[in-house]
């Protein structure tokens, strides 16, 4: 089990954290692998899949394993390539062999999508003028904030 919490200085409209992207080498053999450290990774509950920018794919020498369709809000679908990576989460846990889409991401290096977040319990709070983002993986809780107010 792993967990992570980040508290921002004020209210934020985008959750941004650090993440590592590793080449999909066999970690069980202790093979040294290249990695890319980003401080500009956004967590997007509206994204079904995780996306990395082409600069990360190029820096790591990732290979295409297939293609997929991607589209944004109000945008046209377009075909992009898919790669496999190991994802180093801010909690220092690694998700191995994650399929990611490679596409331009304005102002960010990476989008963590629901393909990763579906395995977590996540909360975002905004008390005292500060946004706090926290998660635990794997999911073990059944949070329901309304129980405290409907009793």
What would your notes on this structure say?
With 151 residues, the chain is mainly beta. The chain has a single domain, classed as Cathepsin D, subunit A, domain 1 (Beta Barrel). 7% of the residues lie in helices and 42% in strands. It has two helices and ten strands, in the order ββββαββββαββ. The protein has helices at residues 54-60, 114-117, and strands at 2-7, 16-22, 35-43, 51-52, 66-70, 78-88, 94-102, 110-112, 121-125, 132-137. The longest helix has 7 residues, at 54-60. It is globular, with a radius of gyration of 17 Å.
Strand order in the largest sheet: 2-3-8-4-7-6
User: How large a portion of the residues is in β-strands, by DSSP E?
Assistant: 35-45%
Q: In CATH's first tier, which class applies?
A: Mainly Beta
The major beta sheet can be summarized as: 6 strands, mixed, barrel
Based on DSSP secondary structure assignment, what is the total number of beta strands? 10
Q: What is the CATH H-level superfamily?
A: Acid Proteases
Q: Measured on Cα atoms, how large is the radius of gyration? A: 17 Å
Distance between the termini: 32 Å
Number of domains: 1
Structural class: mainly beta
Contiguous uncertain segments of 5+ residues: none
Please count the helical segments: 2
Give a quick summary of the entry.
By secondary structure, this protein is mostly beta strands. It has helices at about 55-60, 115, and strands at about 1-5, 15-20, 35-45, 50, 65-70, 80-90, 95-100, 110, 120-125, 130-135.
């Amino acid at each position: 089990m792993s967990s992570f919490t980040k508290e921002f200085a004020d209210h934020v409209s985008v959750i941004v954290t650090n993440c590592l992207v590793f080449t999909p080498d066999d970690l069980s053999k202790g093979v040294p692998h290249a990695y890319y450290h980003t401080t500009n990774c956004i967590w997007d509950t509206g994204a079904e899949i995780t996306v990395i920018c082409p600069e990360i794919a190029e820096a790591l020498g990732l290979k295409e394993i297939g293609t997929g369709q991607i589209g944004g809000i109000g945008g046209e679908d377009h075909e992009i390539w898919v790669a496999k990576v190991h994802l180093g989460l801010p909690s220092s846990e690694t998700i191995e062999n994650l399929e990611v889409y490679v596409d331009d991401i304005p102002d960010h290096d990476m989008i963590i999508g629901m393909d990763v977040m579906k395995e977590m319990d996540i909360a975002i709070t905004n008390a005292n003028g500060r946004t706090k983002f926290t998660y635990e993986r794997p999911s073990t809780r059944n949070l329901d904030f309304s129980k405290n107010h409907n009793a």
